Amino acid sequence: MMLPFLSICIPSYNRPGQLEKLLGSIDCDPELVEVVVCEDNAPKRLAVRETIKRFSKTSRYLTHYYENATNLGFDGNLRRLVECASGDFIVFMGDDDLFVPGALNQLLEFLDSHRDKPYVLRTYLTEHPDGRTEYYRYLPETTVLPKGEATVAWLFKRSVTICGFTVSRAEALKYATADLDGTLLYQVYLMSQVCLQNDSIYCDIPVAHAVQSFRDDKPMFGSSESEKSRFTPGSVSHDNSINFTKAYFEVTSYLDQQHGTELTKLVRVDLSKYSYPFLSIQRKRGIRSFLNYAKRLEVEVGFGCTRYFYLYKWALLLLGENICDRLIVRIKRIVGHTPNF
Question: What separation, in Å, do the N-terminal and C-terminal C-alpha atoms of the chain show?
């Protein structure tokens, strides 16, 4: 039997309904893909199991379903998916995300034409609560990205969102480690290891629809042993947000020690320039709470190193999140992609 070209890898945790919608959005040539789901010992395991059974019976797609004996957490579950997959490439999808109709076949054609690029930065979209669509395009067109720390620093924040994250399985296996479990950034670690040593490519095709369940303020991270020291399930608290942001620099420090790079410095500056989402996630909790949180980002995390941080802070303070979101979407539409400062 011929091995699949692409493995669609889905870390599952307690979202059987959303998982079913994601599986239903897969619409490509079934000869070229496999679906791999790893369920991470969540309370709704039985419902997830039944969802996979129904999909396997009616679908044309080869589907592999695994249940973790213990809760591995986000990072450990991604690593397990890589181990269980068999495709040349892996595309990760959060179990609450969706594929854009028709995009998977385009992605398959793109990967076939760029087999020598072991990491692909994808384009994706989101829908805001008021129905507005926001596209996350990072460059005006498909572009080869040269290997090295400058590219990795630029890719760092742009590779965090899991939906559509695409990497060579062989490269991902090569760099497997549990050293960073609990950071929620294993995918960024993989990107960094691969792109320090290899040219990569930006794909200007909207592949995935990120549903952004974090806006519901009910995160599930923090259930595994590796995550409990950093995250508390139940809400996007100040501490959860700060600890997640600090985890970026756990990853960069780890890489700097291995490779003698200066990623920590480079990434801190880049994250400060694009710190709007780090700030806006806490604006809904009121002015005083927001100012306290912004001060922690400035002092504890070091985001006060560029003027952009203060621009976002005061814009959010004076205008609020909804108006700022609208302005950013408008700027992106005018420019055609996220501006590069």
Answer: 49
**CATH T-level topology, domain 6-214:** Spore Coat Polysaccharide Biosynthesis Protein SpsA; Chain A (3.90.550)
pLDDT at 225: 82
Where along the chain do its domains lie?
6-214, 237-335
Q: What letter does residue 69 receive in the DSSP assignment?
A: S
The pLDDT value given to residue 213: 59
Backbone angles phi, psi at 120, to 5 degrees: -125, 120
DSSP conformation class of 212: -
pLDDT of residue 218: 61
Tokens 């592949």 belong to 207
Mark out the alpha helices in the chain (DSSP H runs): 16-24, 45-58, 73-84, 103-113, 149-158, 169-174, 186-197, 238-259, 263-273, 276-280, 287-296, 307-319, 321-335
Torsion angle defined by CA atoms of residues 201, 206, 211 and 217, in that order, rounded to the nearest 10 degrees:
50
Note the pTM of the prediction, 2 decimals.
0.95
Q: What is the dihedral of CA 271, 224, 220, 210, to 10 degrees?
A: 50
pLDDT above 70 coverage of the chain, percent: 96
> Does 211 score more than 90 pLDDT?
no
Q: Which residues contact 206 (CB under 8 A, 6 or more apart)?
A: 100, 103, 123, 124, 125, 135, 137
Q: How far is 295 from 317, CA to CA, in rounded Å?
A: 13
Q: How many C-beta atoms lie closer than 10 Å to residue 216's C-beta?
A: 11
Strands 119-127 and 165-168: antiparallel
- Do the Cβ atoms of 83 and 163 come closer than 8 Å? no
**Interval 130-155 mean pLDDT:** 95
Q: What one-letter code names the amino acid at 83?
A: E
